[in-house]
Design brief:
Elements (H helix, E strand, L loop, with lengths): L3 E7 L2 H16 L4 E7 L5 H9 L6 E2 L9 H19 L3 E5 L3 H12 L4 E4 L14 H11 L2 E4 L2 H9 L7 E3 L3 H9 L20 E5 L8 H16 L4 E5 L4 H11 L5 E4 L4 H9 L3 E4 L3 H8 L4 E3 L7 H6 L2 E3 L4 H13 L1 H7 L11 H12 L24
Parallel strand pairs: 1-2, 1-4, 2-3, 4-5, 5-6, 6-7, 8-9, 8-11, 9-10, 11-12, 12-13
Helix pairs in contact: 1-2, 1-7, 1-15, 3-4, 4-5, 8-9, 8-13, 13-14
Bound molecules: uridine-diphosphate-N-acetylglucosamine and uridine-5'-diphosphate.
Length: 394
């Protein structure tokens, strides 16, 4: 029997980070799986650094990114390019990840060609169509088009069951981001970046990222003004903010924060220095999805700069707090963690509700079962206890 042909499709930085371990895992068993990669390159530089780190050379690169691209532009360019790839390769399965426009469009293209879809990181929901926008709808539409749903957690599984997805189509894996994190964070990591190699890690470092579309404009202004205030009130703190490539974010960040001493606006960092910096930071402020999963595993408190989250597990575990986007609320929450050691320690426990580093192996195991190489899938992921050693230590 020829190997099963799996086409992994992704386009942005977070998809690449979370799909890289799956691609590497599938490439291990060449007699069973032939794993090809098609990138839409909805992101360019931010995607390429991940491909380099994980030594992935895509068979197809649609190179669709344009400065200031609209959702419609991404959708049309990716759909046209992907259908051509599918016609040429005729894969047995298309594997997509998460909730970007590339994710949804790849699932749609596969549906148009009647090719089964496997959805990695399936079942995350806020219940609000416009938050995050357009990701919540991308995930729901991708679920409707998918045949196999790799849910990272039990809650994600429950969400899918509530929507009527048959139980036998859902498989709980843990999040592959923890696989990537475990492969990348090291206690003895040495920074080569000019800023990071000279940063005084005896000082408390606040790591910031922000990019969500629903935060563009006024919410972003509030967030950046809050950072300014925090820096004014706590002069010994250093704020490191790798600014997303999107000019809509850069312009406001520079207007409000450029030249503020102790606020470092830098280019997006490659994944390896970025997560190692997170491991040495005091606190994380972000509207990112991935950081809400990584920081708890590293024992770092997170203030989430959003009104809702599709990742309630770490909120319940107490390491993540939703603070929204008003300047006052952000300053207040950060001040509490900078001043009150007990509050800080309560949040700074290492918890891994999102994974144990074996998610990709489980995905391969399930696919072996799905394609008839074995009679039963491997056991599913169960959430480990809180308080395990942070990733990178022990
Ligand atoms: C996209 C995803 C979002 C995901 C985020 C991760 C959609 C609609 N949005 O949002 O779900 O959370 O990626 O970061 O799928 N740019 C560059 N170089 C790059 C990347 C981006 O210059 O390597 C600039 C370009 O001007 C581009 C703009 O950023 O047009 C926006 O990129 P886009 O992928 O449309 O949106 P993101 O906000 O990055
Ligand atoms: N990340 C990175 N460099 C940076 C900022 C983030 O490598 O400068 C990584 C981070 O570790 C996480 C992922 O990018 O794995 C999150 O991507 P992003 O916040 O852009 O997207 P989201 O997770 O919100 O979809």
């Amino acid at each position: 029997m020829p190997p099963v042909k799996v086409l992994a499709v992704f386009g942005t930085r977070p998809e690449a980070i979370k799909m890289a371990p799956v691609v590497q895992e599938l490439k291990k068993s060449k007699e069973e799986f032939c794993c090809l990669v098609a990138v839409t390159a909805q992101h360019r530089e931010m995607l390429d650094q991940v491909l380099r780190l994980f030594s992935i050379e895509p068979e197809y690169d649609l190179n669709i990114m344009r400065p200031g691209q609209s959702l419609e532009e991404i959708t049309v360019r990716a759909l046209e390019g992907l259908v051509e790839v599918l016609d040429r390769e005729k894969p047995d399965l298309v594997l997509v990840h998460g909730d970007t426009t590339t994710t949804f469009v790849a699932a749609l293209a596969a549906f148009y060609r009647k090719i089964p879809v496997g959805h990695v990181e399936a079942g995350l929901r806020t219940g609000d169509k416009y938050a995050p926008y357009p990701e919540e709808m991308n995930r729901r539409l991708t679920a409707a088009l998918s045949d196999v749903h790799f849910a990272p957690t039990l809650k994600a599984r429950e969400n899918l069951l509530r929507e009527g997805v048959p139980a036998e189509r859902i498989y709980v894996t843990g999040n592959t981001v923890i696989d990537a994190l475990k492969a990348t964070v090291r206690e003895d990591y040495i920074f080569t970046d000019p800023l990071l190699s000279t940063l005084d890690f005896n000082k408390r470092i606040i790591l910031v990222t922000a990019h969500r579309r629903e935060n563009w404009g006024e919410p972003m202004r509030e967030i950046f003004s809050a950072l300014r205030k925090i820096k004014e009130q706590y002069r010994e703190v250093e704020i490191v903010f790798p600014v997303h490539k999107n000019p809509r974010i850069r312009d406001i960040a520079e207007e409000i924060l450029k030249g503020v001493p102790g606020v470092h606006l830098i280019e997006p960092l490659d994944y390896e220095p970025f997560v190692n910096l997170m491991a040495r930071s005091y606190l994380v402020l972000t509207d990112s999805g991935g950081l809400q999963e990584e920081a708890p595993a590293l024992g770092k408190p997170v203030l989430v700069l959003r009104e809702v989250t599709e990742r309630p597990e770490a909120v319940e575990a107490g390491t993540v707090r939703l603070v929204g986007t008003s300047e006052g609320a952000i300053v207040e929450a950060a001040s509490e963690l900078l001043e009150d050691k007990r509050s800080y320690l309560k949040m700074a426990q290492a918890v891994n509700p999102y994974g144990d580093g074996l998610a990709s192996r489980r995905i391969r195991g399930f696919l072996r079962y799905y394609f008839g190489f074995c009679l039963a899938p491997p056991p599913e992921f169960t959430c480990p206890e809180a308080g395990t050693a942070p990733v990178g230590q022990g």
